[in-house]
Each structure stands twice: as structure tokens, then as C-alpha cells.
## 1
Amino acid sequence: MGKANPGKLRIYLGSAAGVGKTYAMLCEGHRRAERGTDVVVGYVEPHGRKHTVELIEGLEVIPRARLPYRGTIFEEMDLDAVLARRPQVALVDELAHTNVPGSRHEKRWQDVEELLRAGIDVISTVNIQHLESLNDVVEKITGVPQRETVPDAVVRGAEQVELVDMTPEALRRRMAHGNIYAPEKIDAALNNYFRAGNLTALRELALLWLADKVDEGLQRYRADHHIRQTWEARERVVVALTGGPEGETLIRRAARIAARSTGGDLLAVHVTRSDGLTGADPAALAAQRRLVESLGGSYHQVVGDDIPQALLTFARAENATQLVLGASRRSWLSSLLTGPGFGQRTIRGSGDIDVHIVTHAHMGRGRGLPRPGGGLTLRRQLAGYLLAAVLAPLLTIVLTSDRGGINLISDVLIYLVAVIVVALVGGFVPAVLLAIASSLLLNFYYVPPIHKFTIAEVNNALALGVFVVVALLVSSVVDIAARRTRQAARAEAESALLATTAGGVLRGQRAVEAVLDRVREAFGMDSVTLLERGDGADGQRAPGAAWAVVAHSGTAPVTAPDDADVEVPVGQDLCLALRGHTLTAADHRVLEAFAAYAAVALEQQRLTAEAEAARPIAEADRMRTALLAAVSHDLRTPLASAKAAVTSLRSPDVTWDAADREELLATADESLDKLTRLVDNLLEMSRLQAGALSVFSRPTALDEVVAAALDDLGPAGRDVVVDIPDSLPEVQADPGILERVIVNLTGNALRYSPAGQPPLLSASALGGRVELHVVDRGPGIPADDLDRIFVPFQRLGDTDNTSGVGLGLALSRGLTEVMGGTLEPDETPGGGLTMIISLPAAVGDGQPATAAPGRRERHGAAGGTASPVTRDGPGVAAAPSGTQGGAAREGTG
């Protein structure tokens, strides 16, 4: 029985081989052993390094398991022995190592996971180039693909990840002093993988990756402890975009600010208001989004009625340290009438977030974007009340002072203009109040009898009545227009947001998570979770079944709809649950559309997964159908020949002399050989298609494999010309599979080579890879058919069906690719084809490609001349100019 609690994983992370990961791991093992902890060495690879070997002494070492594979004995960690020993701590080196076929697990990190499940703490090591997410980046930097990788989630899941760091100069000195590799490998390593530029780039990758992991831990801590204020542990620059022409200036300025600190993040955010800054040009926003992403930043879109508050809420949620805004595009008059702009209001509420107001060419030239009101904003309504309170007495004083020069009609029109102005500024209510007050003032001061609230003439009463009605109508029209503008603005904002989300669902992977991220950002929620009702005991979903989390965004997921602040059901089995704050009815309507998007995205994701799962089945079915169709015909000829020969030999009616018997036996033997090769190819192709082919790559001398392949070809192999330079590095490949590929390709080349022009096998190395050219001078293949030769059951140019089912090249390419190589055809200058096998040079844990003893010889005396090969740097051979090349069309393997 294992311990109740799983073990803890500690990892020493390095940028390259030789920085001291294993040394640090062993030192930690000694420290724990001195404190009384039960520590054992599960597996440590010292690589012949003296100081590492010395540190192993004094620690209990679990004997390694010895596993046979392809006639060789390999040593691996004895997982069962470690589990039986049950130490408190196990030291397990090289987390990304691939175990020998026949081991319980394919990868060593899977062994470590089993130890952790058994309650054993594990201390391990890994280099940054072995992380799965950085595999392609490391290959671009070093030119060497890493075949041994470990999922990032395994390393990120470790309780502790400690960086073992060393400067490139110090690491190269260690290399030069012989503390990492054997003396014969030092020069090649320093001039290839361990160049100063490579080491600097790998070191930066390690530092940045670890910084990201530390940042994840910090965010979890802040969320768990409900910490809202900004912690300036890492620069995060948020730039606010309106879709205006100043956007590119702001983005570039923010990018320069973020670039001043290593690892700084750039985030762009556009706030879509229901009653504010709308009308942004979608094309301009799309262009600005592309610019942000090209500068390494991320684009976000949120919805908020208060733009400054929405910006600051987003910035604090992302733990931003700086906020970049553009200077206002409003004119000075607009600023005077409407008060402080977004920039000033954002600064007042920013707290510990630095706010940068960036000037640009468009400031002070008008907003360029309409600012629709809500009914109207509170600020405008207050301005309307204030204006009404000022205009009423002011007009009364002015008009009373000139009572004799202006008649009643002019007085009414002047007051009407004032009412219209107040309606435009403050809306319906201030204008109605001013209209009532104005009618009373007109009656008291200007309608006879003066200074009395009576009207002597009917015309004057009619004029005042019309005045009040017009004032009310104008005020109502202004208010209705403002409300319609608000509704249109909100509809535009909603449609833009939903259209963006729909496009993401249709385009992107992680569609469900993308929708949830959009919901969380748009509504300012802490957590958004998609819940699905689980299956009952009978496999059917019951109304009372428990809810399960399908996907979530933000902090800890909501586990049940009752725990959410907002819940939106999607049918009977799905529910979108939000935690953070309640939403308005209008927001609920938009949220329902998001919930429908999430359901569609989930269905799309599951259908895609089902399609991916069904694809191998369909491919296998197609292959089986093709195999049966091919076997039904191609097995018939060798079987018929063998059967006829054996039947003739056994016939009692005919007496055969020795020569006839020998000829019949030879016919039977040849037919059975063809049958054997055909069945072998069919079985290998089936295993390859099913993914059941075991591959064990290791450093392999190419010349030795070529020699073995030519021996397999028998007498025909003696005619092949071989040109392999002495300086050629070893390749990382499975020797048995590579030999099979070379036999296939060389046999094809022999079949199509004209008399007196035997095939040529030449090799060269460049950029961390080794290429083997299998050349023939045969009839060649049209350029349009080059890719078709790798389709199973193709025999391009064949005139009969006696030469095989057409699996040779399809099988050869498949076998090459499972070893991490490529097989490509090319035209031979002067006629014929060349088959090019490209394989990675042998590099293990940062080890450089090592030179293997070469062979350059000619088998037999057939025509053809080997081209010379020149050296181009340590361990790298340049391909000869004018090298001949050719390719066979179909092989029987």
C-alpha cells in the first residue's frame, strides 16, 4: 500500500548540459541524508565526470535493471526495486529520458509519476531544450532537434523548480578544461552546440520560462488571498485603444515602455461602452490588434459603462503596473463644457498604477467618435439644470431693461431659444422646468397686466400656450434622440462583441476556453465556468445528477450553479456560471448569446475530437482494404510458382534429372523469397499504420549500416559505389530500421540502373543533420509524380504486377519519419532520380555530433565515379557539387 499523500517533485532546471544539475541534485541528496532523511539514488548518469562520481559515494544506490534490446543489454532505472525499497526521497536523473522498449513506461517522467503516486518524494533534473513547448524554438537556435521531450505540465506541476545557472563563458571554460565531455569531443562541441550565442539564447529561454512559472504561482497566491492591489513584481503595460488614428502611436510607445524591463508584458484593451465611446472603426481596431500581436502583446476587449473604471478594473485584474492613454482629441471648448476627460478621471482612480498620457498628432482636433448619451449622462443633466437656473433670471433682467424696444412675440421666441438650448444640453426634465418657469416669467413681466399672473387678451394666452407646447415637444425630441442613440450604441457594442466571439469560435482551437475568456473580460468577472450535468449510474443524465466542470476561465471554477452570482442555463445539461457581481437584464440577454456560443464551441470541440479519433480507424480500414485488394493478386504469382515447382518434384509420373530438380528447387526458393518479402512489407506497413512499431534510436555509424545493407543485397550489392567521408558524424537512428530503409532504396536503384552505371551512395553533414543520397541513372520520374511514389500500392512506370505490391517507398518513408528523419526524392542531373535520407546528427543531452570512422570505397568494378567530399568546419561535411543522385520507384523491401 502506498502512502496516503502523493510525493513531492523537485526539479533542477538547466540551460544546457554541464551547468551542474546532477551535481546540485546529489548535493541536495547529501544534505537531506545528513538530516536523517532516507535517500536513495534511483538513477544518476554521471557521464564520466569525476566530481559527479565522487558525490554518488555515500548514498545508497538502487541497482539498475538490465534490459535486452536488439542483441544489446541496456541499463535503466529499476522502478520495481525503488518501489519495493520505499525510500522517503529518490534521486532520478534526466527526467526526459526515453526508456528502452520493454520497460514498463516509455518515458522516465512516467516512472517518476508512479513514484510520486506511491508517496515517494523525487528530485530530478531536466534541461530547457527538453521541454515540449520549446522544442521547435531550440531547434531553430541550435539546428539540432530534440527527440527526448517532457510535457511542460509535468515540470510546471513540480512543487519546486530551481534554476541551475551558469554564464556561457563559464560553461565554455568548463568544457575546455575537460569537465563535461571527453577531450576528443571538446573542439566539436565548442564550435557547434556550445557556441556562445547558442548558450546565451538557451539561458534566456530558461530564465524566461522559470519567470513565467513563478508568475503563475504569484497569480494563484494573489487570487487565493484576494489581493487586489498591484504588486510590481513584473512590468505589465496596458494600452487603452479607442480605434482612433492615434492607436498605433500609443501601441508603439507602450511597447517601448514594456521593452525597458526584461520579460515585460504588453496588453492592449478596447472598452466597448453601452452609453459611451462607440463607433470605432472595426478595420482600424483589427489593424491595431495585428500590430499589438506582432510586437508580442495580447489584445483584449471589455464592456463597461464607465470607461475609466473599466480600464482600471482590467488593469488591476491583470496586475498591471503602467497604463498608457492618449491625450484627449476633444477641442478646448468641448473640454470646457463637459468637464474632465477620461484621462483625468483615470488618473484620479489609478492608485498605485502609473498612468502615461501620450501626446499625438490628433489631440485637440475633435473626438472623431460620437458620444451618445444615455437618456443623458448625469453630468449633462446637471449642466442642463445649471444652465436653466442661469438663463431664466439672466434673460428676464436683459429683456426687462429694454421693455419698450422688444414686443411680446420677440420675448417668447428668445425664451424658446433658451429652452431649446437647455434641452440640447440637459435633456427633457431641465427643459420642461425652464419652459414652465419661462411661461410664468413672460406672464408676470411682459403680458398685460404687468406684474400680475393674469392675461387680459386671448392672443397672449394662445402665444404662451404655444410656447409651452413647443418647448415640451423640442425637449421630448431631444430626449428620445438621446435614448435611441444609446440603444443603437449598445446594440453596436453587443453585435461587435458577439461577432468577434463567433469568429473566434469558427477560427480557433481552444474554442470553449476562448469564449469563456471573452465573457470574463467583457463583463469583468472573477471566474466563468461551463458546467455540465454528469451521467447517472445507468449512464443516462438525470435531472438530479451532479454538475461537472467542463472548462473555466479566471480564478477557481464554480462547482455548482447555486454557488454562482450569475447563471445562464443552456438546455437541461449545460450551464454557464459566473462569479464576481450581478448583471443587469440587458447584460443577461447578451450573456445568453455567449452561453449559446459556448455550447456550440463545446459541441464543435467534441466533434473534432471524435473525428480525430475516427481518422486512424478510417485510415486503418482503408489500408486493410487496399492490402486485401493487393494481396489477392500479388500473393498468387509466387504461390502458384512455388506450388507448381513442388508439385512437379513430387509427381511420380516424371523422372527429373539433377539439373531439372535444381532448376525447380531454385524456382520454388525464389518464389518463397518473394512471398517472404511481400509478407514482411505488409506486416511492417500494418504495424507502422497502427503505431505499434517500436523504435529505439541511438548514435549510429552510418558507414556500418550501409555496409550491412549492401551485404543483405548479396552479389548485387557489390556493384554499388559508396562515398562516405571519414569525418561524417554519427546519426541518431535505429540501426535495424535504417538498414531496412537503405536495403529498400538501394534495391530499387539497382533494379532501374542501366548496365555499367551502378547506383551511388554518398553522404554529407550540414546544420546538425546528415544526408544519405541513394543515386541511380535510371529513366527517372516526371516531376508531377514525385510525391505519388510514396503512396502505397503505386508502381509508377511498371508494366506488370510481378514486382511487388508497391509498398517499398511508402514503407521506407514511414520508417524514416518514425526515426525523426525525412525521405525526399530529387532529380539526378543528367537523368535519373535521387532518394535523400535526412537524419539528425547524434546529440544526446547537449552532446555534439561525434565523428564516426568513415568508409569510402567501391564495391565491385562497375562504372561510376565517386565525387570528392570536402570538410567545412568541425564535424560538418559539405555536399559535393554536381553530386549524382537518383531514386527507385518502388521497393519490395
Note: Residues 378 and 426 are 9 Å apart (CA to CA).
## 2
Amino acid sequence: MITVSCEPDGDDWRCSVTIGDDARATRHQVTVRAEYLLRIAPPTAQVDDVVRTSFEFLLAREPRESILRSFDLAEISRYFPEYDAELTKALGG
């Protein structure tokens, strides 16, 4: 279970993500920069869907406990070079 809540922060977004609904649930703070969002997602994509899809991508590759607690969404591609292309494809872009 992935719960995402995003709030605008100027042109960017700040998102809170909770993975799981058990005692071991993890919480994460994610920044999504407007220019990055425009580059990787179709114009109709909602930021919370982009973040949720990004966490699904991460969880397919590592346990929730290994995901950084605070990061900029663009950082994912530093660890997983295929991320941008796979995210764009998953979002229908």
C-alpha cells in the first residue's frame, strides 16, 4: 500500500509518501521539480500518480526500508538509469 499526498511549493511539489499500513510502515519526503515533471510525464499526469508510480518502480527493485527517507524525484535515475524511460512508458508518455 502506497499513500501519496502532494502540496505545491512554488512551481515545484513537496510530497509525503507512506509505504505500508503496518507497524513497519516507512515515511518519505519527496521533492518534484516542475521542469523535471514536464520532462518525464505527459501533460495530463497528476503529480501524485507520478510519485506513486515512481515508488512502485523502486519497490520492484528494493525493499521499502532501503528507500531514502528524503530525496528529489530526479535522484532515482542516478541509482537506476532506466528510471526516466520506464516511468515515461508507465505513465503513457
Note: The longest helix spans residues 47-59.
## 3
Amino acid sequence: MFRNYLKIAFRSLRKSKGFTALNIIGLAAGLGVCLLIVLYVTDELGYDRYNVNADRIYRIDEDVYLNNTRYDATTTSKFFGPALVATYPKIQQMVRFRNPGDLLVRKGNDHVFEHHFTFADSTIFKVFTLPMIAGDPNTALNNPLSIVIDESAARRYFNSTDVIGRTLEVDNDNKLLKVTGVIRDMPEQSQFHFSFIRPIREAYNFNDPSDNNWVSNSYFTYILAQPGTTRAEVQKDVDDVVNRNIGPALQGMFHSSGADLEKAGNHFRCRIIPLTDVHLHSNKSGELEVNSNIQFVYIFSVIALLILLIACVNFMNLSTARSANRAKEVGIRKVAGSTKGHLIFQFLTESILLSLISLVLALFIAVLLLPVFNQLAGKSLHPNVLFSGRFLPVLILLVLLVGCLAGSYPAFYLSSFQPIDVLKGKIAAGFRSSWLRSSLVVFQFFISIGLIVSTLVIYRQLHYIRNKEVGFNRDQVLIIHGTWSLGRDGTTNLRNNLLTLAGVTDATITPDLPTVGGGQYWQEGWFPDALLDAQKATLMTTLRVDDHYIPTLGMQMIKGRNFDLAQFPTDSTAILLNEAAVVTLGVKDPLNLILYNHDDLMRTITYHVVGVVKDFNYNSMHDKIHPLLMVVNTFNWSSMAVRFHTNDVVSLLRQVENKFHAAKKGLPFSYTFMDNDFDKLYHAEQQTGRIFITFAVFAILIACLGLFGLVTYAAEQRTREIGIRKVLGAGVTSIVGLLSRDFTILVGIAALIAFPVAWWAMYKWLETFAYRTAISWWIFLVAGAVALVIALMTVSIQTVRAALANPVESLRSE
């Protein structure tokens, strides 16, 4: 019997080639988009799951709240991990990382800036799954002068992975490090990618006997819990470490225990976050790499579902619209003994078969569009996943789901015809006879209009970000990276030499530029008195700058003056505040205000305010401008910002590079432009905007395919009416208007429903920005007009053809 069903299904689909083609193309487009989004969502949800013990690994984060100022960090004290493992049996293992930033590695006569250096405990191989190609993971990091590299680094420097015992020259002093291990490249779905791993005890200041500070937070700490241990149990042990060690440390240094802070509404806490949650649920200060956002997963999943629903709605509409063509078939089958169940199964077989054919085409579409989608989404998704064994059940489920969803209503609708009514000719299913069909058209354009509104709002927000006054001038600023490799004197001499170039107007040496992302800045507590009482502290972002910083970046002083060490030697302990800091401190006259801090040895240092700078966005516009303080940079010269004014940028770059190489030969010249760095802060939003536009276009095209089919059948059913109207003198315009009116009304209803829903969704999205554009009324007007024009163009293609047809032919056919 099933074979018979398949035969009939093939005959029916072959008989209505136009109907079949529209349905296959519509379903294939919807399924193709869905497959792309499934790949994206699968990739996002799969981060860090390559680790065998991923479900038992946690990162320890620090959360400090003092007097309405907050500091969320991904790092803790270097003592935290060892204390947990030594004292609490439920914590099986721990590993700490400390990242030094870029380091120089010699390659031949030149040096290369390598970005993926880290210092780590030897237990890294016990916590994380990092397969070692060569070497012993148990001893690879035992020697202070050892280094573990990944497969790509081994091939890059030695053209082989058999490199155990070979040496690398690292850092300015060309320290020789012996390669003791080679690991496989870390998967792309990882929250960190280390190519060079050195022993943690070689990290800066790690072995300093004076560094016994439990309140410091320079180390990423990951812990591995024992099997069967719950998250609540791990958090309880972490809280106990905080109470036992950080509480007394706070009391000794800042005269307030953890309990005292809690009573005053403040806190110093450490929270754990599961390893598999970091990529999508964490966006704190100092993340190892830029994370994504779970909102994107939700958004794209909903879009995939909506586009698939549009494709299924097309199938339902076209199937019921052409129901008159199959009414006699249903009647004869019922008279011949077919039951309703048999007919339902027959029609569902047809829809599942059509869904299967569409899936084959959808796979081809997905593979074809994947490179473009990768570029839009910033991914490296591979089509092999679609054809893997683990993905096969998903494809089978998708075929059955879409086939049953799209074919359910037509199957029940067609099988419900009464044979006596059919054979007497009482069944005539035209476009206007189905309220459900009209509702489905409204649903399609409701989705399409909602996507158009969302796209316009996202585009406008991105335009607002790019053009908003941010408090500094990012145009024509060249950023030279890695100037620390020149040393302090070499970097200063380079700046002086650059200032002699005709196109250069100023230059500043600083590690803290306002386009690096707020998560990389130094956060400190500042105190109003020398007692350093934590109850009175204010957490402020601290930028390390020089006296060229303000003029180079085009910032504005609104009170006092800039740093001037040449004229005021005491400016070594001077500070600048931003307007938000002045408001938070609650002082009317901030000039000459005294604030206190401490150095690494916990010695109290007195600072005095000499000026106030106008607020500027040093974080992305997702965050409000928080209290900020600038101190004189005395120990970090990692980058230089150079302001220039010239139309011949290529020539200037060549001159700057020559000056850089003259300072020290063999060093790589690495640079970016500040306006490009600024744009990168909003890379995720730009990707979202581009993907939204793409999906909106797909949704509208798929909806128009269904609309085209509906208009075709509506015109066919009104062939005689059109012929009579033309004979009686009706013009093409009036006939087109007659056939288009119903669809115009439906698009209007869809717009009225879509507008408030889209407004609410975009309002919620804009709430994630501290600085945002308004949702103007014209956005809805444009979205509705675009949808209406597209619908009318689609309708007109068929209605004009019907209106231009010879009425004699149409009446003769009757």
C-alpha cells in the first residue's frame, strides 16, 4: 500500500509542475536558511565541550561592589586555586593562567610578535583536554626554561612537530627556552587559544616574597570538581575560601572585613561560572578572548523558526488554494472505499516526499551559501557537519517535522470533503473562501514586516554609534603596537623622532587607549583618606597616560590643567578625573582634591587632582560612562598613538615605519588606525545587522513565492469573471486593482500587528545599549511601504497577465 501511495504522490506532483516547483523552491529556501542557522547555533553551543571534563570545570570570577561602583573581573588572587585544592576534597584540580600580552619570538634574523602566549600551571593538562603530539604532559612544564608550543607554532618555526629539545629565543633579552611539548592546535570552539605555554612561576612578580596579597587579582583560575559534585557545593567551598582568607586580608589592609562590607550594602565576592557558560554568558572585565552572547543564539533560532514557518505556510496556502483541482479525486476515492485516514496518510506522504526533495535542494543551497554566511557571521563553519552521522537524525527529524507541519492542514482539509457534495460540484474552493488561508498570508507578512523594522532599527543604531560624539577624536590617529620592544628610552626617542615628520602633529605613549575595550583597563579602589578604609572606597577605571594623551586624542579639559612634568615635577603623583568621577565622589571643587592609593608593597601613596577631563566613551556604548581616573604612566609603554594630518597616508606610513626600524632593526612594525579599532568594538552588532538584512530578504522572497502562487490560482478561479468584466469595458488598471485589493488589505492587517511587536522587540534590544537611538515613527512607515510595494509587485506580475488575456479565450474555455 505504501508503494501505491508513493506512486500517486509522484504522479500528483508531476501533474502540477508549477505548484510543485513553487513549493520545492520555497521549502528549500526556508530549510536552507534553517540549516545555516542550525550550524551557527550548534557551533555556539559547542564551545569548550571538546574538554572531556567540561561539565566539571569552573572559572572563578571576582565581583566587587563599593559605594555604588562595581568591578566584575575574570581573575583572582594566585593563592585561590591552591587553597581550594589543598583544603576541599570536592575540588580535584586547579590551573592558573597569566597572560603577558604579546611577546617577541626570534625567527631567523627577525622577530615576530606572537599574541597567544600564556603562563600556566603544569596541571593545565589535567584540567583541560589538550592532546600532546610530542613530550610528556606530566613533566613538560617542570623546568623554568621550558616551553610548550602548539602544532602550528612548531611548523611555523621548525617546519616539523618533532621538535622536542629544540630552543626558541623569546622576549627582548632573547631568552633561550627549550621546547618540551607540542600540543594539537586548540579547537576554534574554545574560549582561549594558547600557542605558547610557559611555567606559571616564570610569570611577572609570581615569586616575589612580598606578594602575599589575597585581594590582588592577576590570575585566571579554573578548577576541576570531583565527579558528582554539584555547582552549589563548589560555590560553597569558594565562599568558604573568601571568608577564611579574603575577609581577614580586607580587614588588615582596608580596615573592613567582608561582613562589614555586606552590612553596608557593599561586597567582595567570588563567583564560579561553568566552563561551558563562559562563551555565551560572560562579558566581564579582562575576558581571555571576545565572547559571544546568548541573545544572538535566541534571535537567530527564532528567525530560523519563523522563516521555516513562512515556507510551511506557503505549502498550506498553495495546497488548499488548489483544493478544487483535487476535490473530484477525493470524492471518487471515498466512493471507492478509501477512509479518511487513508486520505490523510496519502496527502501527508505527498508533503513528506516534497519535503525530502526540498531538503536535498536545501543542502545544496546551504553548502553554496555557507562561505557567504561564514563571512557575515565571522565563523569558520564547515559543510561536512551537515553530512556527518550525528547530524543525520536532525535531517530526518527535520524532513518529518516540516512534511507533517506543512501537510497537516491540507491533508485534514482535503480528506474532509463529502463525496456527494464533490460529485454534485458544490465544492469550489477559491481564494476568498478560506479565512485560514488569509490568516496565513497575514502571518507571513507579519514576520516579514517585523524583520524589516528590526533591520532598520539595527542599522540606525549602528549609524548612531559611528556618528555619536564620544569625547575623543578617532580620525587620523595611527596606533603603533609593541613599542615596549624598544624599551622606555627607545619608545621616547621614537616619539620625538616622529614629531619631526611633516604630517605628525602629536604622539602619546600609553597602554590604555579608548578603543581597546573597557575589559582590558586597570580597575582600582581609591580612598578619601590615608586609612584606606574600604567602606569609603570608590572603584574607578585607571588609565595610565602621559602629558601628550589629552591633545593627541583630541579630548577636552573642562577644569584645571593637563599633566606637565617639565613645569610641575610633582605631577608624578597628579591625577585627572572625568566628569562621572567628580559626580560619584560628590565634590563641588575637585581641583587639588587629595586621594589615596597603595603600591604593590601596600605602601600608601598620596595623589592630588590637577584637572577634570570631559566625559568620553572608553567602553563600548553598551555601558554608561563610569568614574575614570588618569595617572602618569611610569612603567608601561606597550603602544603609541600618533595623530597626523595629511592626505598622503601611504607616504606617512612609510616614513613612520622607517623611523621605527631605525630605532631597532629586526622588529616587526605592527599598526592599526583608531577609527578601525573603534569599529571593532561593535563587530558583533555589525554582524547581527548584516545577518538580519540577509534573513529579512530571504523571508520576504519566500513569502512572495507563496503569494505569487496564490495570485495565480485566484486569477485562474476568476478567469470567467475577468473575461466578462473586460467585455463590459473594464480596463487593465481596474482589473489589477480588483485582484490586488484583497492582498493589500491582508498586508495592511499584517503591518498593524507587526508594528507593536517589532517595537517591543527592538526596544528590548536597544536597552542593552546605554546610549541609543530613538525608534522613529518613519521606520514603521518605511517597513510597511516596502512590504506593500513588494507584495503589489508580486501580485501585479500575475494579475496584469490575467488582465491582458484575451476575454474571448477565457469565455470560450467556459
Note: The mean pLDDT is 82.
